[in-house]
Amino acid sequence: MKKTLLGAILFSVIAVVVFLLNNSPKVERNKVDSSTQTEVEITEKSSEAKHTDQSKKKSTSQVKVPSQNEEETHSNEEESSNLSATQKKYLKSLNSLNSGFAKAFKYRKEPNELIHFLEEQGLSPKINKKSNSFLGVTWEIRTNKSLPGTRYYNAQYDGDDEDHLFLKYLSYEYAPGEKSFEQVIKSLENSYSIKNKDIISPGENVHLFIERDHVPYTITIKKMNLYDINNDPTYPHTEDDIGTISVRLQLNMEDEH
Length: 257
Hints:
Layout: H1 2-61, H2 68-81, H3 85-106, H4 111-120, E1 125-132, E2 136-143, E3 150-159, E4 165-174, H5 180-191, E5 196-201, E6 205-212, E7 215-223, H6 226-230, E8 245-251
Antiparallel strand pairs: 1-2, 2-3, 3-4, 4-8, 5-6, 6-7, 7-8
């Protein structure tokens, strides 16, 4: 009887051990599989999140913010689209002229810079050279031709001798028109580094202040009236010229050259 009981107990213990041995690996494998699956899910979610972030960054980086030059170009295109073919031609001449004159101003002690620009434009510059033992040397530069919508180019360089000249003044006229005054102001502001602006009479008389080599100059923009055209000592005018825009860049006489 005792042997039978011991045998039964031993058999039961062996059965339990066998059961545990057979089932333990499955539990462990399930744990591993579950852990692996969780890691895969986390990795996939992380990859998706990273891809989403990159897509957002890429999308953000592709948004183009227009630069100031692009905005100005767009503004100029809109303005130009409202002009006639002749007005567009005049405006193009105005911008080209101011760009060339601004470069000449940059080299204000080199009159040949202005002469070269006028020659490049096919304007046949004429140089009248004068010398005086008391007043020194003067070069006056004019042209026989002009760009469409502009005329009466006149520049003067003074100095003790031809090797030490400086720009005294530079002037021209622009064709009258409803938007001519504003076009001239805008073109000058885009061509020169303006230090200050003085509006004497809105839409009729404005002074722009510029500087080179610490020497100040003033650009006077004036819409010519009947008095102006009748009292111009240099160039002839008629009543049809009323509204013409006179532009004159001049050395401030009280300052050293």
